[in-house]
Specification:
seven-stranded mixed sheet; alpha/beta; 21 strands; about 475 residues
Length: about 475
C-alpha cells in the first residue's frame, strides 16, 4: 500500500487493486474565497477521475470542496459517515454523486483486499459530542441516540498495512474511539493527523497588538503540536504524517498570514523529530504529489521545505489581489439588512432555548454606516446602536464583516454560514472578557432566515417589533 500526499488533508491511499481519494480540496477558494494552497497545485481534480472511491470526512470546505468535486467523474462513489443529520449526504448528492453512508465502527470491504472503517469522532455518543460543544442535546425525534459530531475518522487497510486518517477530529472527544481502533487493528503503519489550527484565532482578533498575535500564534501552534502527540502515543504508528489545516489567506486577508497558527512544515518536522524518538515512530513529511510505500518505507522523493521568500512573493503578487465571492454582490442598504433580523432572531431564540444556553455576553454585529445590531443572548431581544462603546457592556463579542457577507449570513447556510465565515477569517472578532464561549457561537450559527419568507426592502421600523430596550 502507498499513500500520496496532495494538499492539506487530501491524500490518495492505494494498493495494486484499489484507490481511495480522501478529502479532496484541490483548488483554491475554500471558505468564500479566503483559503488557498501553497505551493500552487501542479495537478487538477480531473487527474483523479480514475480513483475507485472518494472518502469525505466532514462538511468543512477544506474537506468537502464542491469546486473540486464538480470537476470530477460523478461515477465515483463517495463514502461518508452515517451522521445523525444529512447535511453532508445531501450536499454531495446534489452534485450528482452516489453517496454511500457507512455505519460507525464497521469494517467495510471495497474492491480487492481494501477495507475502510469510518468512525464518528464522538463514537456515536451524543453526550461526548455535547460535552465538547457545551450542550447535551440531539435530535429528539431520532429512534436511538447517534453521532451529533460533524467529524469522522477512517481506518483503511488491505489486510497487510493499515492507515489511520484522523483529519480534524479533536482528541478530547475521540480518545475512546482511538483506543478501540488500536485494540481491533493492532499495528498501525501510518497515522495521518492534524498539527496546525484551521481557525480564526488569533489572526482575526482585531484588538490584539502585533506582538500579542505573534505570542498567541506560537502558543496555539505549541498546543496543537502537543495534542498531536497524544494521537501518536495512542496509535504508536510505524510512520506518522502531520497534515490537514494547511492553507494561505488571500485577498484583503493576505496580510494576516503571519499570524495564523499554521507553521512552516519544516518547523513542525523539527518539533516532532525532537519530541518523538524516530526509532520508535518515524515522522513523514512529503511534498505535494509524493508518496510513501508502507511496505518498504521508501519515499518517492525527499522532503524539500518551501522557500519562504518565494512564498512571500506569491502571496503579495498573486494571492493578495484575489477577491472574495461576496464582493461581487451589490452593497445592501441598512433597511435591507434590518428586514432579516426579526426572523433570524426568532431562529436564534429557538436554538438557544432548545439547548438551554444563556449568557450575559452581548453580541454586536456590524451592519452599514457605523450601525450595529445588538443581540441579547439571554432572551432580552435586540436593538440597533451607532458606534457602540465597549465600556457600556459587562461582556461582549463584537463581529466586524463586509455588509455583503452579512447579508449572505442573514440569508442562511445556502448563501453563507457563520462558522465557515469565522474559520475563513472573514469576521473580525473582539471579545470581552477574552474567552471563547462555544455555546454563544453555536447559537449564532442559527441566526439566519432560512425557511422564512423575508419581505424584500421591508420598512426598517417593522424590524423593531421584537426589540426590547
Amino acid at each position: 500500500m502507498r499513500v500520496t500526499y496532495l494538499e492539506s488533508a487530501a491524500i490518495l491511499v492505494e494498493d495494486e487493486q484499489t484507490s481511495i481519494l480522501c478529502d479532496p480540496w484541490l483548488v483554491d477558494g475554500a471558505y468564500y474565497g479566503s483559503w488557498a494552497h501553497y505551493p500552487e497545485p501542479e495537478f487538477d481534480p480531473e487527474d483523479f477521475n480514475d480513483v475507485d472511491y472518494i472518502y469525505i470526512s466532514h462538511i468543512h470546505p477544506d474537506h468537502f470542496d464542491p469546486d473540486t468535486l464538480e470537476r470530477m467523474d460523478r461515477d465515483i462513489p463517495v463514502l461518508i459517515h452515517d451522521y445523525r443529520w444529512d447535511y453532508l449526504h445531501d450536499a454531495v448528492a446534489a452534485l450528482g454523486f452516489d453517496v454511500i453512508e457507512l455505519s460507525h465502527g464497521e469494517r467495510t470491504p471495497l474492491e480487492g483486499d481494501m477495507h475502510i472503517n469510518v468512525l464518528a469522532a464522538d463514537g456515536c455518543d451524543p453526550e461526548r459530542c455535547g460535552n465538547y460543544f457545551g450542550c447535551t442535546w440531539y435530535d429528539d425525534d431520532a429512534e436511538e441516540p447517534g453521532s451529533t459530531q460533524v467529524d469522522s475518522m477512517a481506518v483503511i487497510d488491505n489486510g497487510e498495512q493499515t492507515v489511520v486518517n484522523t483529519n480534524d477530529v479533536p482528541f478530547s472527544i475521540a480518545e475512546s474511539v482511538c483506543r478501540t481502533v488500536t485494540d481491533e487493528y493492532g499495528t498501525i503503519d501510518l497515522l495521518c493527523h492534524q498539527y496546525s489550527a484551521a481557525q480564526f484565532y488569533p489572526q482575526a482578533v482585531t484588538d490584539y497588538s502585533h506582538e500579542k498575535k505573534l505570542r498567541e500564534r506560537d502558543r496555539v501552534i505549541q498546543e496543537k503540536h502537543e495534542r498531536a502527540l497524544e494521537f501518536i502515543d495512542i496509535f504508536e504508528p510505524r510512520f506518522y504524517m502531520p497534515f490537514a489545516g494547511e492553507y494561505v489567506l488571500t485577498g484583503d486577508l493576505a496580510h494576516l498570514n503571519e499570524y495564523t497558527a499554521n507553521p512552516p512544515r519544516e518547523e513542525a518536522l523539527e518539533f516532532f523529530t525532537d519530541a518523538v524518538d524516530p526509532d520508535d515512530h518515524e515522522c513523514v513529511f512529503l511534498n505535494s504529489g509524493e508518496h510513501i510505500d508502507l511496505e518498504t518505507g521508501e519515499r518517492s522523493a525527499p522532503f524539500e521545505p518551501a522557500d519562504p521568500d518565494a512564498k512571500r512573493r506569491y502571496i503579495e503578487e498573486e494571492l493578495a489581489s484575489r477577491s472574495f465571492e461576496y464582493e461581487a454582490d451589490p452593497m445592501p442598504t441598512l433597511s435591507e439588512l434590518q428586514a432579516y433580523v426579526p426572523y433570524a432572531y426568532e431562529s436564534l431564540e429557538e436554538k438557544r432555548e432548545r439547548i438551554g444556553y444563556s449568557t450575559e455576553t452581548t453580541v454586536l454585529i456590524s451592519l452599514v454606516d457605523d450601525v450595529y445590531l445588538e443581540l441579547s443572548m439571554n432572551g432580552g431581544g435586540y436593538r440597533y446602536v451607532s458606534d457602540p462603546r465597549p465600556v457600556e457592556y459587562d461582556g461582549y463579542v463584537k463581529l466586524e464583516a463586509d455588509a455583503r457577507l452579512v447579508k449572505r449570513l442573514f440569508e442562511g447556510p445556502h448563501s453563507a454560514y457563520w462558522a465557515d465565515a469565522k474559520i475563513g477569517s472573514h469576521l473580525g472578532v473582539q471579545k470581552e472578557p477574552d474567552i471563547y464561549e462555544r455555546g454563544l457561537f453555536l447559537c449564532l450559527g442559527s441566526f439566519h432566515t432560512h425557511g422564512y419568507d423575508v419581505p424584500v426592502e421591508a420598512d426598517a421600523t417593522a424590524s423593531a417589533k421584537a426589540t426590547q430596550d
